[in-house]
Amino acid sequence: MEALISAIPIESDKFSWNLSFNITKNKSEVLSLADNQTRIVLQTSILDLATVEIRPGDPFGSIYGKDYVRDANGNKIIASTGYPLKPGDNEYKRLGDINPDWRGGLSNKFTYKNFTLNVLADFQLGGEFYSHGQLYRELMGTAEETLVGRDEWYSTHQGAGHFEPIPGVIPKGYIEEGVTEGSSCPIPPQ
Q1: Which domain, by its residues, includes 8?
Q2: Do 106 and 20 meet the contact criterion of CB atoms below 8 Å apart?
Q3: pTM for the predicted model, two decimal places
Q4: How far is CA 74 from CA 66, 90, 131, in A?
Q5: What mean pLDDT, rounded, does the chain reach?
Q6: Best label site of 20, 24, 125, 176, fewest CB within 10 Å?
Q7: CB-CB neighbours of 171 under 10 Å
Q8: What's the rounded Cα separation, in Å, for the pair 178 and 181?
Q9: pLDDT tens digit string along 90-146?
Q10: How far apart (Å, rounded) are the C-alpha atoms in residues 4 and 125?
Q11: What's the alpha-carbon Rg for the chain, to the nearest Å?
Q12: Is residue 118 part of a domain?
């Protein structure tokens, strides 16, 4: 589905301005794959945490990956260790797809005597992506999200660079939001 609007707001002997705006929406569904295949992997992420795939019943370019184990309300289930439970190695779920909800563009053509200037701006709204950069920022502790609880953790250890617990001192820090294993009581983030 696509719409295009064109106009000439200004037109004279020496100067003219042509304007065009278009917007498009594309919706796809994979109906079947050849040779009774159940999926085709287009791209696999580093560490095999996510894939971009073609599967019958899904839009072309669906993202599959590993998510935390969740209860019926979508809350992460937190183990007695304080960490969220992770699914088995082969458990992937559909996380979204790479296709934008909308795409469009705005084109301007300015003409003055024998000179022409074309200016084009395009956009897309929606669509998901998997970011390797974000993964590494979170692993290395440089992502903004990893700041929560960092000062409290360092305050219970012997300075920066010393990562072993001090005997008798229980480190303070971030507590993951979710529900405890075998319970339905939510744990608030701290």
Answers
A1: 1-26+101-130
A2: yes
A3: 0.64
A4: 14, 20, 23
A5: 83
A6: 125
A7: 13
A8: 9
A9: 678 898 999 999 999 999 999 999 999 999 999 999 999 888 888 888 878 888 888
A10: 17
A11: 26
A12: yes
- The more confident residue out of 189 and 111 is 111
Which residue is it, tokens 């779920």?
Answer: 93
What 4-10 contacts at long range (C-beta under 8 Å, 24+ apart), as own/partner pairs, is none
Residue 87 within any structural domain of the chain: no
The band of 179, judged by pLDDT with boundaries at 50, 70 and 90, is confident
Q: Could you tell me if residue 133 is left (phi over 0), alpha (psi between -120 and 50 degrees) or otherwise beta?
A: alpha
CA-CA distance, 56 to 58, in Å (whole number)?
6
Q: What is the mean pLDDT of residues 32-50?
A: 88
Which residue, 84, 88, 65, 60, is CA-closest to 74?
Answer: 84
SS3 145: helix
- Work out how many domains the chain is built from and give that number: 1
The reply to whether 82 falls in a domain is no
